[in-house]
Design brief:
By secondary structure, this protein is an all-alpha fold. About 65% of the residues lie in helices and about 0% in strands. The protein has helices at about 30-45, 50-60, 75-105, 110-120, 135-145, 165-180, 185-195, 210-225, 230-235, 245-260, 270-290, 305-325, 330-340, 345-365, 370-390, 400-415, 420-430, 435-455, 460-465.
Length: about 475
């Protein structure tokens, strides 16, 4: 005798103790009931539904109300409904299993790129979920038997620069995933990476090690999930598979060190040693093939200040200093004093001419010095001179002179550096008057655009092009 299932009543709803329904139609027999219960048991095992939900769905398919009993006349239709639902559940279960198997294989080596290329070429799709069950089984078979063409990952040209922030963040994410998979502290993983690269703690990792380190971390994470890793599985875990010569070196190394074969199960320490060996081999090859393009010889202006040029520049600056001491230094102190108390127009013209000649003599002689603060002084003087001349037809004051001086400073700085926003913010920071921001910004943008129209490079780029 078959026992009722869990959560199932002793008899279908609506059937009385006598085994007949209220309408006089015979109820389900024991054999019919057993058949339906077995189908429901298999359906529940494949889905997340409960017994009561399945019974309700069957009644809904038969057009019965919730409290109506299943009768013997309903058996054939109920069995057909359950078989149809069971077939659909089995198909879905098989589909999920195939996708799970494919997902496990996609993380190995460059399989993901190979599968993506295959389904795009043969099926015109870009996602696995859009494929039919037959297509998924075909891809799984090809992948399991190594019949897919695995493309080599795109190689980036090696460079001697340090890691970029984006590359460092990528490595940090891989380290975090590996630490979560193995339980090893992230600090120890980073220490191992630095030792592999031959970099001391606190130094920057060269960009030539980015790809080998990322492959090293990905392979460690993949192999940590395998219960019995071997040399063959190590080869499959590498994003960039080993070449024939590299494979032979790794096999020989493992044979000499531990007397193992490609099919021998390896310990985590042995796997780590082999991955380190792969990293060293590829690092050495990258150093051998590192090609730094040689610049073609171009005609450059060699800049070597001769003693007589320096002497002449110093003589000119010294003579101008006898006329006005304001030409000494970089002019920042003069800028501060003029912003507090603007000078007269005649004095300003004289100091402006002397300072401009001193800057030209100093820079032209090859003496080391900057042009940043002198640019501020020249801009301040030009702005104040404009304010002085404008008093001939506009009412002015000291505030107007200071305002025009600040505008001239910002405009000249933006024109020489081609950096309008920096120039605007710098003047606002120097004065603490952010109410000037809109007007200064417009002035700086206009001066920067005009300067770029006249000369493409800023004064700093031009200086590098001539003197480097």
């Amino acid at each position: 005798m078959t026992h009722p299932l869990a959560d199932m009543p002793d008899r279908p709803p609506g059937r009385g103790p006598s085994g007949t329904a209220a309408t006089g139609e015979p109820s389900l027999s024991m054999q019919q009931r057993t058949v339906l219960e077995r189908l429901i048991t298999r359906l529940v095992a494949l889905t997340s539904q409960q017994n009561a939900e399945v019974w309700a769905c069957v009644k809904h398919d038969l057009g019965l109300k919730g409290d109506s009993p299943l009768l013997a006349c309903h058996f054939s239709a109920a069995e057909a409904s359950l078989n149809q639902r069971l077939a659909a559940a089995q198909d879905n279960h098989h589909h999920r299993q195939t996708l799970a198997q494919l997902s496990d294989l996609l993380g190995q080596g460059n399989n993901r790129q190979a599968v993506s290329d295959y389904i795009r070429q043969h099926y015109g799709q870009t996602a696995l979920h859009a494929l039919s069950q037959t297509q998924l089984e075909t891809i799984l078979h090809l992948l399991q038997h190594g019949q897919l063409s695995i493309p080599q990952p795109q190689q980036r040209p090696p460079t001697l620069r340090p890691l970029l922030p984006a590359e460092h963040n990528t490595l940090n994410q891989l380290v975090t995933k590996l630490a979560a998979a193995t339980g090893e502290p992230s600090k120890l993983i980073w220490q191992s990476m630095l030792e592999l690269c031959g970099v001391k703690s606190g130094e920057l990792i060269p960009a030539t090690h980015f790809l080998p380190l990322s492959y090293w971390l990905q392979a460690r994470q993949t192999l940590s999930a395998q219960s019995a890793p071997t040399l063959t599985s190590l080869q499959g875990a590498l994003k960039q598979p080993l070449e024939a010569a590299e494979w032979q070196k790794i096999v020989d190394f493992a044979s000499r060190s531990w007397q193992v074969t490609p099919q021998t199960t390896l310990s985590p320490a042995q796997i780590l040693a082999l991955l380190n060996k792969v990293f060293v081999l590829r690092g050495a090859r990258a150093q051998e093939t590192l090609a730094i393009p040689q610049e073609e010889p171009v005609a450059r202006r060699t800049w070597s200040a001769k003693p007589w040029q320096l002497a002449l520049g110093g003589l000119i600056v010294g003579g101008l200093s006898l006329i006005t001491p304001a030409v000494w230094g970089n002019g920042y102190s003069v800028v501060q004093s003029y912003l507090l108390l603007p000078p007269s127009g005649a004095l300003l013209v004289g100091i402006f001419i002397c300072k401009l000649l001193a800057v030209l003599a100093s820079s032209g002689s090859g003496a080391p010095g900057g042009v940043f603060t002198p640019t501020l002084f020249v801009g301040l003087a030009m702005g104040m001179l404009f304010a002085c001349f404008s008093r001939l037809w506009l009412p002015g004051s000291e505030e107007m002179a200071i305002m025009m001086g600040l505008t001239g400073m910002a405009a000249f700085l933006a024109a020489t550096t081609h950096a309008p926003i920096m120039s605007t913010l710098m003047i606002c920071e120097m004065t603490g008057q952010y109410t000037l921001l809109p007007g200064l910004l417009i002035t700086c943008v206009v001066s920067s655009v005009l300067s770029r129209t006249l000369r493409r490079d800023s004064i700093y780029r031009h200086h590098v092009a001539e003197h480097v």
